[in-house]
Specification:
By secondary structure, the chain is an alpha/beta fold. The protein contains twelve helices and 15 strands. The chain has helices at residues 16-30, 50-62, 79-90, 107-113, 132-140, 184-197, 237-240, 263-274, 280-289, 292-319, 342-353, 379-393; strands spanning 37-38, 101-104, 124-128, 145-149, 168-172, 200-204, 230-235, 248-251, 257-258, 261-262, 323-325, 331-335, 355-356, 358-359, 370-374.
Length: 394
């Protein structure tokens, strides 16, 4: 008899967003017509910028003529897009070659697929609170997981453990859900730790475009030594509104070698075996993001979300409630007031303020007692939500 992957039976049921939807639905049934302000969503609300839309339309038109039609694309990414992304790094003084850039259908896909490169006997270290997919993808692969807790004392930015820790190390900076951002010295400690122990860092940089402080690194490859111990996974979802369009990219240095095997070469073989590449139309739209005009336009959109975050953090400052994130990240991680647990605070905000956020307990045990607010909503809803919280919690 065929046996399924029994590790799926080890997955914990994820009730987070199901419970959120269920509670909101029940509330609306009892209070029809009430206006709910949703600050829990991790999706963007602004449309794609005009430079991207123009490029998408042009690419669609290309497909109408034999002379410009494109079928299968190179599995690792179209050369024009790999070069555009490589130049984006090089303009910031980061030495990344085009051959080290791989185009993907999004960071979420890549975070799971990248595990193909590593033996299932290897252990994965995950700092918590954490994006749930880190844990689930490794459970599915049958990999042992080392949980590294964090909290207010370390600003939700833990240092490496004293022992070897694990073979794979997950770091997300700016972090989802906490919004905390690692500094250069902190990341250097992780890089040194990984190189010393032969570990590989999976660096999730999906929110790097929200960093405004020039002293904070936007890429792991700004840190000396990272080229021999790190893989960086990026996304245009929050950077340029590609949540529904789907495109990301991964950087694997050619100098990243384990047991005499090049992870870059291994990933080329993986992609050419398991994918047919990302569509020409989407890649042309993505290339427009990296033009001067595209960068100007996406910065305007990011500025709207950052202003939303400022509205929320200023309200929390006036209320005297502890939080982190918000300034260099789209998420604000709030300590639940009055000693409430995160689901109790959810119910309180929903029933008394008509506000929906995300309970921290959904991101692991270290998230209990905290609450994630998102800045991806409309400015009008964000301002009204801040005013409602001020009245409720003052």
């Amino acid at each position: 008899m065929l046996r399924p992957n029994l590790h799926y039976s080890e997955l914990k049921d994820s009730y987070l967003f199901y419970n959120i939807s269920k509670r909101v639905r029940a509330f609306l049934e009892e209070h029809p017509g009430e206006r709910i302000l949703r600050l829990g969503i991790g999706d963007v609300s602004l449309p794609l910028c005009s430079a991207v839309i123009k490029a998408l339309h042009g690419a669609v038109d290309d497909q109408a003529y034999k002379s410009t039609f494109h079928g299968y694309m190179p599995e690792c990414g179209a050369p024009f897009l790999r070069t555009a992304i490589g130049e984006h790094y090089r303009k910031r003084g980061i030495n990344v070659s085009d051959s080290e850039v791989f185009v993907s259908s999004g960071a979420s896909d890549e975070l799971g697929d990248i595990l193909d490169l590593f033996d299932r006997e290897s252990a994965a270290l995950i700092t918590e609170p954490a994006y749930p997919a880190y844990v689930d993808a490794n459970v599915m692969a049958g990999r042992r997981i080392v949980h590294l807790p964090s909290g207010e004392k370390d600003g939700f930015l833990p240092d490496p453990p004293g022992d070897g820790g694990a073979d794979l190390i997950y770091i997300c900076s700016p972090n989802n859900p906490t919004g905390a951002v690692y500094g250069r010295e902190q990341l250097k400690r992780w890089v040194d730790h990984a190189n010393k122990n032969g570990s590989v860092i999976i660096f999730d940089a999906a929110y790097e475009a929200f960093i405004e402080d020039p002293l904070l690194p936007r890429s792991i490859f700004e840190i000396d030594g990272a080229e021999t111990c790190a893989v960086e996974i990026c996304s245009l979802s929050k950077t340029a509104g590609f949540t529904g369009t789907r495109l990301g990219y991964t950087v694997i240095p050619e100098s990243l070698v384990r047991c005499g095997m090049s992870l870059n070469s291994m990933w080329v073989r993986n992609r050419t075996t398991k994918t047919n590449g990302v569509s020409y139309i989407i890649q042309k739209g993505a290339a427009a993001v990296f033009t001067d005009e595209g960068q100007r336009q996406i910065r305007e959109n990011i500025g709207v979300y950052k202003k939303n975050a400022k509205v929320l953090t200023e309200a929390l400052d006036r209320l005297g409630i502890w939080y982190c994130g918000g300034k260099n990240a789209p998420y604000v991680w709030v300590k639940c007031p009055g000693g409430m647990d995160s689901w109790s605070f959810f119910d309180f905000l929903l029933n008394e303020g008509r506000i929906v956020g995300t309970p921290g307990a959904g991101f692991g045990g270290c998230g209990e007692g905290y609450f994630r607010l998102s800045s991806f909503g409309s400015p009008e809803d964000t301002e009204e939500a801040a005013e409602r919280m001020m009245r409720l919690l003052k």
